[in-house]
């Protein structure tokens, strides 16, 4: 769980707002929430399904290769730019990728996983192999 702390995330603020970029400061599994700090130093708590990480570059690239026929041209171009930005491990590149995705909701949906999705996968794996 601690490895998610201080990771950059995109937060869905509702349909009338662009997703916001922030940093995870805490995750509370009992409440199903994540506390996120934004650039203006405001702190907000959101449900885990509204807070998303970018997929890793290999997963996104594989998705581009296998699902290109089902992705719109504009979203494909955006995802390709995001994947190229992910080649540089600097935080500034990740933030650029997130800024780009804020304006392309279709690409954002394909390029990210909510914390709820990520943790559900991890919790299911842990339950399947409790001896580890």
Note the gap between the termini: 16 Å
Please state how the strands of the largest beta sheet are arranged side by side: 4-3-2-1-5-6
Low-confidence stretches: none
Q: Note the overall shape.
A: globular
Mean pLDDT: 90
Radius of gyration: 15 Å
Structural class: alpha+beta
Per CATH, the architecture is: Roll
CATH class: Mainly Beta
CATH topology: SH3 type barrels
> Any idea how many domains?
1
Major β-sheet profile:
6 strands, antiparallel
Q: How many helical elements?
A: 5
* Strand and helix order: EEEEEHHHHEH
Beta fraction of the residues? 15-25%
Total beta strands = 6
Helix content: 40-55%
What does this structure look like?
Strand 1 and strand 2 form a beta hairpin. The chain has 132 residues and is α+β, with helices and mostly antiparallel strands. The longest helix has 14 residues. The protein has 5 helices and 6 strands, in the order E-E-E-E-E-H-H-H-H-E-H. 21% of the residues are buried. The model has no long low-confidence stretch (mean pLDDT 90).
Summarize the structure.
Helices cover 44% and strands 23% of the residues. The chain has helices at residues 57-67, 73-86, 91-102, 105-111, 115-128, and strands at 8-11, 20-28, 33-38, 43-47, 51-54, 112-114.
Can you lay out the helices and strands and say which pair or pack?
Elements: E1 8-11, E2 20-28, E3 33-38, E4 43-47, E5 51-54, H1 57-67, H2 73-86, H3 91-102, H4 105-111, E6 112-114, H5 115-128
Antiparallel strand pairs: 1-2, 1-5, 2-3, 3-4, 5-6
Helix pairs in contact: 1-2, 2-3, 2-4
